Amino acid sequence: MNWLDRHGYSLNLVAVLLWPLSLLFGVAVRGRRLLYKHGLLHSEAVGAPVVVVGNISVGGTGKTPLVARLVELLREAGYKPGIVSRGYGGQSAEWPRHVTVDSDPSQVGDEPVMLARRCRCPIVVDPDRVAAARVLLETYDCNVVLSDDGLQHYRLRRDIEIAVICGSRRLGNEACLPAGPLREPPSRLREVDFVIGNGAARSGEYLMSLRGETAVNLNDPCVSSALTGFRHGTVHAVAGIGDPGRFFDHLRHARLRLIEHPFPDHHRFKPEDIHFRQDLPVLMTEKDAIKCRAFAAEGCWCVPVDAWLDPDFEEHFLKRLAAIALAKGIRRERGKPGRGAGTHPQPDVSRE
C-alpha cells in the first residue's frame, strides 16, 4: 500500500496536517485553468476533433480500457481514430515516438504498447501532446484524436472531455495533493462533458464495467483458459497498476484463491518479480504482461479486460462528436455494425 492509499482515502491526522498545502495546490491548479480559459495561457487546436479521456485523481481508474472501447466505437461509426499519449515511464531520448505492437515499453510506456496491441490503430507518444497530435494527423489518415490521459494538459485544445472515476474508491477524502489523491478539486467534474463511473455510477454519471473471464498464456497467446479453470488451486496474482486491489477483486469475483503481489503503477518488472518458489499459476494484468512476456515462465497468464459502457453514453457521445465533426468539416464513412474492431481495415502503423 502506497502513501496515498494509506492517507488519501480517509480523514486522518496526516491528511489534516497537510490540508493547508492541499488548499494552496487547489488554488494553483484553479488559477492555471483560469489562465487558459481566458486566453492568458495559449491552448492549441490541431484541426481534428480531440477527445480527452482522463481523471482528476492520482492512480488508475480504468482510462485505458475505455480508450480501447472508444476506438472500436469510433470505427463502428465510420471515423478513423488515432491515439496520443504522454508515454508515462518511457525513457526515450527522442520525442515524438510512433508506437507499434513491437515497441519497447521501457522507451514509450507500457499503456501505449498495450493499446497498440489491442487497438491496432496509429499511436504517437510525446510528453508534449500537441506535438504528438500534430504528428499523428500529419502521418496517418486519422480524423479523430483520442488522448489517453491528459485532462490537465490544457495546452492541447479539446472538444470533448471524459473523466473516469473509480466507482469504489471515488475521490477519497476529496482533498487535492498532498493531503488527498486529487490533481484538481472535485468541482472540476462539473466542467467535463461526461463522467464515467468504473464499477459503480452515481446520478449524472455513466456506468462502465470491466469484463474479462479468460486468461491468455504469455508464452503462447494462442493458448487460453477460462478463469474458472484456475479454481482447483491457489494462484499468484500480480498487479503493477494504479489500483492493484481492483485486479485482485476481479479474480476473487471469479472465485479464485489468491496470493497477492501488488506493485507500484508502471513498475519495471524483473524476472524475480514473477518467479515464485511455489509452483503455482501466475495471473497478471494485460498491462503488466507487456513488460513480462520476454522472461515469463510457462505458467504465466494475463487477464485482458474489455470496457462495457452504458448505451446511453455511447449514443450521447457519438451525437456530440457528430456535431463537432460537422462543424470542422470532418467526413466519415458509413459505420459497420458489431463490437469487435477486427472486422475493420487497419491503417499501416509500421513506422517506429
From TrEMBL:
* Lineage, broadest ranks: Bacteria, Pseudomonadati, Pseudomonadota, Gammaproteobacteria, Candidatus Competibacteraceae
Residues that span the membrane, as ranges:
12-29
EC code: 2.7.1.130
Q: What UniProt keywords apply to this chain's record, in alphabetical order?
A: ATP-binding, Kinase, Lipid A biosynthesis, Lipid biosynthesis, Lipid metabolism, Membrane, Nucleotide-binding, Transferase, Transmembrane, Transmembrane helix
Tell me which family the UniProt entry assigns to this protein.
Belongs to the LpxK family.
Q: In which pathway does it act?
A: Glycolipid biosynthesis; lipid IV(A) biosynthesis; lipid IV(A) from (3R)-3-hydroxytetradecanoyl-[acyl-carrier-protein] and UDP-N-acetyl-alpha-D-glucosamine: step 6/6
Q: Where is the signal peptide?
A: none
Q: Does the keyword Chloroplast apply?
A: no
Q: Where is this region: Disordered?
A: 333-352
Task: Name the chain's protein.
Answer: Tetraacyldisaccharide 4'-kinase
Q: What does this protein do?
A: Transfers the gamma-phosphate of ATP to the 4'-position of a tetraacyldisaccharide 1-phosphate intermediate (termed DS-1-P) to form tetraacyldisaccharide 1,4'-bis-phosphate (lipid IVA).
Q: Which positions does UniProt annotate for ATP binding?
A: S57, V58, G59, G60, T61, G62, K63, T64
- What one GO molecular function would you report for this record? lipid-A 4'-kinase activity
Q: Per the record, what are the reactions this protein catalyses? A: a lipid A disaccharide + ATP = a lipid IVA + ADP + H(+)
